[in-house]
Amino acid sequence: MQTPAAVKPTTLTTRQRVGRAVLLAVPGLALGAAGLLHPMHLSFATSRTWWMLHLVGLFIFPLVGLALATLARGRRDPLVLLGVLAAYIYATAYGALDVINGLAAGYVTWRLGEGVPRPDEVRYLFAIGSPLGQVGSIALLVAVALLLLDGVRRSGARALPALVGLLGAWGVHQDHIFSPIGAAGMALVALSTAWLYWVQPST
C-alpha cells in the first residue's frame, strides 16, 4: 500500500507577497488619510463630518487589528497568541470608542441643531467611550510590540525598520487619529505591519 506523498507548502510569488503586504497596510493608511479630515473638536459645525468619518471608521478600525493578527497566521506559540489577543482587544475596544465618541456623539450633536448647548447626555457618551479607547490604544501598543518582537526573533535585523510601528501606536494612544500625530501614527502602524509581513520567512 502506497503512502500519500507529502504535501509541499505553497510558496508565494514576489508579486503575491507584495500584494498581500500592500493589502495589510491599506486599513491603517486609510485611517491615517481620514485623520487629515478629522475635526479637532466636536461642535455642531463639525458634527456631520465627525460622525460620517466614524461611520466609515466603524468598518476600518478593526481591520488594523486583523492585519496585525495575520502576521501570526498558522502559528500557535505563546508570543504570537498574546499578540493576536492584544490585536483582538484593540479591535473590540477601539471599535467601541469609534461607535460611542465618534458615531453616537457626533450624530446626536448634529441632530440637536445649531446653537444648542451640548447636553450632559453627550458628555456621558465621552465618559464611557474615552476609557474604552484607552484600553484599545494600549492593546494596540502591546500587539505591535509583541508581533515586532516575534518578527525580530524570526527575521533578525531585517525586521528592525518595523520599530516605527511602536512610535506609530504611541501616537495613536496619545492622539487618536487626529492630525498630525495620530494620523501619522496610524500610517506608521500600517507600514510596520506590511514590513513585518514582507520580511517574515516566505511560505
Please report which band the strand proportion falls in: under 5%, 5-15%, 15-25%, 25-35%, 35-45% or over 45%: under 5%
- DSSP strand tally: 0
Determine the number of helices (DSSP H or I, runs of at least 4 residues). 7
Oligomer: single chain
Low-confidence stretches are none
- Which structural class best describes the helix and strand composition? mainly alpha
What percent of the residues sit in helical stretches (DSSP H or I)? over 70%
Most strands sheet: none
Q: Tell me the distance between the termini.
A: 31 Å
What's the rounded overall pLDDT mean? 91
Shape: elongated
> In sequence order, what are the helices and strands, one letter per element?
HHHHHHH
The gyration radius over C-alpha positions equals 19 Å
How would you describe the overall organization of this protein?
The structure is a single chain. With 203 residues, the protein is mainly alpha-helical. Helix content is 73%, strand content 0%. It is built from 7 helices and no strands. The chain has helices spanning 14-35, 44-57, 61-70, 78-112, 120-155, 164-175, 181-199. α1 (14-35) packs antiparallel against α3 (61-70), α5 packs antiparallel against α6 and α5 (120-155) runs parallel beside α7 (181-199). The radius of gyration is 19 Å and the shape is elongated. The model has no long low-confidence stretch (mean pLDDT 91).
